[in-house]
Amino acid sequence: MTLLQIKDLYVSYGYIDAICGVSMDIEENRITAIIGSNGAGKTTIINAISAIVRHKSGHILLGSAELPSSSNQIVRKGVVQVPEGRKIFAGLSVEENLRLGAYSRHDKDISSSLEAQYCLFPILGQRRAQDAGTLSGGEQQMLAISRALMARPKLLMLDEPSLGLAPIIVNDVFRIIQAIKEQGTTVLLVEQNANKSLAICDYAYVLENGSVIKHGKGSELLADPDISCAYLGRRR
Amino acid sequence: MWLQLSINGICLGAVYALIAVGFAIVFSVLKFSNFAHGGMISACAFMGYFFQASFKKAPPIWVTILFTAFCGVLFALFLDQIAYRSIRRNKSPNIYYFLASLTISIIITSILNVFFSKNPLAYPPLFETTTFSIGALKISKMDTMILIISAALLAALLLLINKTKIGLAIRAVAISPETSKLMGINSSMILIMIFSIAGFLSGVSGVLLGCKYGVYPDLGQTMMVKGFIASVIGGLGSLGGAIAAAFLLGLLEMFWTYVFGSLSTPVMTFVVMLLFLFIRPQGISGKFAKEKV
Ligand SMILES: Nc1ncnc2c1ncn2[C@@H]1O[C@H](COP(=O)(O)OP(=O)(O)OP(=O)(O)O)[C@@H](O)[C@H]1O
Ligand SMILES: [Mg+2]
After folding, report:
1. For residues A130 and A92, what is the distance between their CA atoms, to the nearest angstrom?
2. Is the CB of residue B154 less than 8 Å from the CB of residue B165?
3. Where are the domains of chain B?
4. C-alpha–C-alpha distance, residues B214 and B45, integer Å
5. CB-CB neighbours of B103 under 10 Å
6. Which residues lie closer than 8 Å to A229 by C-beta, 6 or more apart?
7. What are the distances in angstroms from CA B204 to CA A219, B45, B142, B220, B241?
């Protein structure tokens, strides 16, 4: 079943067209990946879904209904992003960051969710009272993911979660993304690390200059000679 | 004598604290010093005065305070609509906020100056005798009332900011309005709320200052300077720091006036502010510096 459908999306910044007619289907309980080089428009797509940038034309449908037009309401619909560069709240504690992740929830179950997150990310449990700004890059990425999970998302969008992390931590991050999917959350993964994301995703879109140039199953794209040449650094 | 001065200083500090917190809370979220606060205080002082005067038998002071605080909120929302909303929508630099707030303050004060003289109008006396004594200490009833009201209000505000979900959202918006939206926080609602809180505080300050000093057009601007200095010394944007600094300033002023006379007091307060800016620009709390890093 399709959870989120993007139809013929156009986004521009002033006169620069960043996204020109992109259509995508994001299937429920799957990992969908968007790969592409710098400036391809990956972040722009995620921000258009979150209504951080407004789209010029096209539709973004959750189920069969158009998404609301303001970012905070979109979060309430269960569409949550882990932004590029993590964007954790420095100056607030780890636990306060997690509580902010749950801001859109109205149930009283927050503390059990907190405990669940501390189980998933033990390091955050140890640092719960620490200023989140003093965490290492890897820990901040874990916090950003954990914070988004506190909202109990239907669709979790991750924007370059492996950026700037040591290879061993990168492996952790990809393992966690798979675990999130296995717990029944739909994932939209934006990555420059094409190799790893194609390996774990179910379906992928390749974006270039604001248009989808190819799409298919992760395993198919991994085997595609054009893709391996342009994005995986292999020689023909 | 020292004890007497300390008590007077604390009472004065309570007045400054209320103003300083009005500054600090707007600064913490919008990163500009809201000079409109001074004009608002004057306007609210007049509103409170005329509300009080419109009855044959003056209503209890808390009714006047509540009424004026409510007017302060409406007034703040009105100013937000006419002056700040477009700045926000265009994502203009903060210097525009600063200029707009300064202009608003001047406009309000000028309008009041057209209609009212510089001679202070006095609120009807609240108490039959002005002081009560404990041993040799003479304590002004008015000051005690002001101290109690400010302390209660400040405590409520600190609780709201530090202990509630809304307070956490306010602190998040203070750090990053954009990221806050991704948490499901309605950032523009929070900004409107901040202005409402500042308006509420200016309403209460207006009545209390009016009771203490009489009502005249420049009342707000004169007093605002003290609140502004306290919010700078406290570390811009820190509520706790602003409160601590306000009490410090109140005490310092009392003692200085006692030893050196009142003529040089304003000079002293500005020198203290400059010293802080040179030696410890992050203020008492040190929070400002941490946020910048
Ligand atoms: N705020 C903005 N104003 C103007 N142009 C922008 C803005 N944000 C992005 N762009 C432009 O839109 C295009 C797509 O940018 P986007 O950030 O979506 O790329 P990306 O695929 O996420 O790249 P990266 O992998 O480097 O993060 C780029 O050409 C960029 O210069
Ligand atoms: Mg990007």
Report:
1. 8
2. no
3. 17-220
4. 9
5. 14
6. A235, A236
7. 67, 9, 14, 12, 21
Place of tokens 């560069």: A85
Region of residue B156 (phi > 0: left; psi between -120 and 50: alpha; otherwise: beta): alpha
* Chain A residues within an 8 Å CB radius of B164: none
B chain contacts of residue A143, beta-carbon cutoff 8 Å = none
Instruction: Give, using CA atoms, the residue closest to atom 7 of ligand 1.
Output: A13
**pLDDT tens digits, residue range B147-186?**
999 999 999 999 999 999 999 999 999 999 999 999 999 9
> A215 phi and psi, to 5 degrees?
-150, 155
Q: Residue whose CA is closest, atom 16 of ligand 1?
A: A41
CA A106 vs CA A96, A99, A152: distances in Å? 16, 12, 12
Tokens coding B68: 């004026």
Mutation test of the interface with chain A: which of B28, B162, B182, B185, choosing the one with the most A Cβ atoms within 10 A? B182
Cα distance from N-terminal residue to C-terminal residue, chain A: 36
E strands of B200-245, at which residues?
A: none
CB contact under 8 A, A83 and B182: yes
| Amino acid symbol at B95 | I
Nearest CA-CA distance, residue B165 and chain A, Å? 8
Q: For residue B59, what pLDDT is reported?
A: 86
Nearest CA to ligand 1 atom 11: A18
pLDDT at site A161: 93
- What whole-number distance in Å separates Cα of residue A168 and Cα of residue A89? 25
Contact A22, A2 (CB under 8 A): no
Residues 6+ apart with CB under 8 A from B61: B126, B145, B207, B211
Atom of ligand 1 lying closest to residue A84 CA: 27
Torsion region of A60: left, alpha or beta (phi above 0 gives left; psi -120 to 50 gives alpha): beta
Domain boundaries, chain A: 2-86+153-230
Half-sphere exposure of A105 (CA within 13 A, CB side): 20
pLDDT digits (tens, 9 = 90+) for A209-221: 999 999 999 888 8
- The superfamily (CATH) of domain A2-86+153-230 is P-loop containing nucleotide triphosphate hydrolases (3.40.50.300)
CB distance from A72 to chain B under 8 Å?
yes
Beta bridge partners of A13: A16
- Whole-number Å distance between alpha carbons of A57 and B141: 66
**Ligand 1 binding pocket, CB closer than 6 Å:** A 13, 16, 18, 36, 38-44, 84, 192
Give the pLDDT score at B135. Answer: 81
Which chain A residue lies closest to B166 (C-alpha atoms)? A103
Test A90 with B175 for CB contact under 8 angstroms: yes
Exposure of B282 by Cβ count < 10 A (0-12 exposed, 13-18 middle, 19+ buried)? middle
Contact state of A89 with B175 under an 8 Å Cβ cutoff: yes
The number of the ligand nearest the C-alpha atom of A83 reads 2
Query: What distance in angstroms lies between residue A187's CA and the mean position of ligand 2's atoms?
Result: 17
Cα distance between residue B115 and residue B105, in whole Å: 16
A21: region left, alpha or beta (phi > 0 left; psi from -120 to 50 alpha) = left
